[in-house]
Design goal:
eight-stranded mixed β-sheet; about 400 residues; FAD/NAD(P)-binding domain; 11 helices; binds flavin-adenine dinucleotide
Length: about 400
């Protein structure tokens, strides 16, 4: 008996923020598109991310970040409209961690913040705050504080909202993956139903790889050369306890010394995610060593907070990007060969920009587009679990550090 086969315009591999935005865009344009996910949606980077919708200031402060700041400066306005439900995709149900961020440093930053905003024509300019406008945790003497209209979203909530909207187009693939072959001008991808073992063939002219660190292996399956991707690791810190809500960056010279974002866990506890230079330096540290280092760094950057009772945990994550010899890429990247588009958003904030650019490369076929993609049942992928919800042992610095 012939295996069931469906023909579509575009098949997407990987359901992180990039794949979901791309699927949404293709669907809006009327293309027949499906997305394959081999694990849980957002597993890898999106669920690990801090959810800041960057507008460029962080890049401008960092040496060599000028071009990144130009490309990213439109993103906060774009997202703000989506998050308010005023433009597509409607993200008004996404949980917002904060409507803006803070940037803080010692006195010398006052003029620099204003100068950078003007020079870059940043859409989101830092607004230096008087003493009485500052949050309590930033009232320390000698700190210059600015507010930045960069929103912070809950990445898990974003994944949930997008996947709910696109549910009938998301397919979970079985361990062992898929088989790829070429049929006429199209790609044929054969997979097995992870619950029933039944086979399915999907035929598509365009294939989009938005699988993050999975892109490298997928490229091999599609017969493409390696060395198109790079990994830049991070070792992040989580802090849990009686903490204030902090979302922002402490800048030190040309570095973001710490970036802190705040969420709430299943038990209602406040959790900080701490990244920035701390997470870059932490790559070569063992978890306990990083916890002791983080405790000192937080004492220096948010000195008003008593962290003696707070619990710490670390997690490792990896930024998967286009190969740029280990340097941070400046923009989104799409490498298209023979209908296979290898894509990296570079930043979560860039996902709408990437989706727009990918959709422009899809070649929809009016005949193929008539096939129905919702006429079969298939297991759907779950959304990935954030690191602070996993079963792990948290420690206080007092227990670990002398
Ligand atoms: C710790 C950390 C903090 C960050 N903070 C921010 C921030 O605050 N703001 C910001 O703008 N950016 C941030 N980023 C960057 C941002 O998270 C990434 O650029 C973005 O999430 C990448 O999304 P993606 O969809 O390309 O990849 P991913 O989120 O990694 O998704 C890839 C998906 O593909 C799936 N997959 C893998 N292999 C296969 C396969 N063979 N078949 C099918 N599916 C597959 C995975 O399971 C996963 O669901 C951060 C990154 C990290 C690591």
């Amino acid at each position: 008996m012939a295996q069931p086969t469906i023909q579509i315009d575009c098949l997407i591999f990987g359901g992180g923020v990039a794949g979901l935005f791309t699927l949404n865009k293709c669907t809006e344009l009327g293309y027949q598109a499906l997305l394959l996910e081999s694990n849980a949606l957002g597993h890898g980077q999106t669920i690990d991310s801090q959810g800041i919708i960057h507008g460029g200031l962080k890049y401008e402060i960092t040496k060599g970040g000028h071009e990144s700041a130009v490309a990213i400066r439109e993103m906060p306005t774009l997202w703000r409209r989506s998050l308010a439900g005023e433009s597509s995709p409607n993200l008004s149900d996404v949980h917002l961690r904060a409507d803006n961020c803070y940037v803080w440093k010692t006195k010398s930053l006052t003029s620099r913040l204003g100068f950078l905003g003007a020079k870059m024509a940043l859409r989101v300019k830092p607004e230096v705050l008087d003493d009485e406008e500052r949050p309590d945790w930033l009232k320390s003497e000698g700190f210059t504080v600015a507010r930045l209209a960069e929103q912070v979203i809950e990445p898990r909530s974003l994944l949930e909202v997008l996947s709910k909207k696109l549910e009938d187009k998301l397919l979970l693939t079985a361990p062992g993956g898929v088989e790829v072959s070429k049929e006429d001008e199209c790609w044929k991808v054969s997979l097995l139903n992870p619950q029933t073992g039944e086979p399915l063939n999907i035929i598509a002219k365009d294939v989009v790889l938005t699988a993050g660190s999975g892109n490298e292996t997928l490229r091999n399956q599609f017969g493409l050369t390696a060395q198109a991707t790079q990994s830049r690791p991070l070792h992040m810190v989580l802090v849990r306890g009686n903490l204030p809500t902090i979302n922002g960056h402490c800048i030190d010279g040309a570095k973001t010394r710490v970036t802190i974002t705040t969420t709430t866990d299943y038990a209602g506890r406040t959790v900080w995610q701490v990244g920035g230079q701390l997470a870059e330096d932490g790559v070569n540290m063992e978890p306990n060593q990083l916890i002791c280092h983080a405790s000192k760094e937080l004492h220096a950057t948010v000195p008003s907070i008593d962290l003696s009772q707070a619990e710490f945990l670390t997690y490792r994550s990896t930024r998967a990007e286009q190969f740029t010899k280990g340097k941070r890429p400046q923009d989104v990247s799409i490498d298209s060969v023979d209908g296979v588009h290898t894509c990296f958003p570079t930043k979560l904030a860039f996902a709408p920009r990437l989706a727009e650019a990918i959709a422009a490369r899809i070649r929809p076929d009016s005949v193929l587009s008539e096939s129905k993609t919702s006429e079969f049942t298939w297991p759907r992928p779950m959304v990935a679990l954030p690191q602070w919800e996993t079963d792990a042992i948290w420690n206080t610095p007092e227990e670990l550090c002398t």
